[in-house]
Design brief:
Blueprint: E1 2-4, E2 10-12, H1 15-35, H2 40-58, E3 75-79, H3 88-91, E4 99-102, E5 106-114, E6 117-120, H4 122-136, H5 146-151
Amino acid sequence: MRGHSSTGAMQTTPIIYKAVGYPLFLGVCLLVCACAGDPISTEYRKIGAEYHEKWFQALPETPDLHTVVEIKELTLHMVSDRKDFDWEKARDKEKGIAAYANTKNQIGILGKKIGGTIIVNQMVLGHEFKHILNFANPDIVDPHDRATMEFCIGKELEGLCK
């Protein structure tokens, strides 16, 4: 292969380098990634958790809070395909619903099975569990109430918040 270097001079890349060098380089990169501690998905979860914790810590302190919510007979439906959801609207792929909760204390969520272990998206599960908590006690924020969840930290917005 012929190409230009950063100086503008012509250079030649031997065919052997293209045939062996690139695959060898890719293989080494994959090996390093496989042996380098936490996978990227763990890093993304850590970053997401850190941002959520920063948001939560930015909320005003409420030292007098002590609320107990008892959830009886919570049922979690973990499915690999949305066609198995109990809620018809959630079965529609175009709607993009990854999970749902209802007033019967049921949560439906997409899951995956890796080596015999079932995995669900913990952020999605937490969101749906917040719905269950809100159904049981309306004083607990509905996760779709953006005014309370996101915007009621600033003093200028206090009048808009519960």
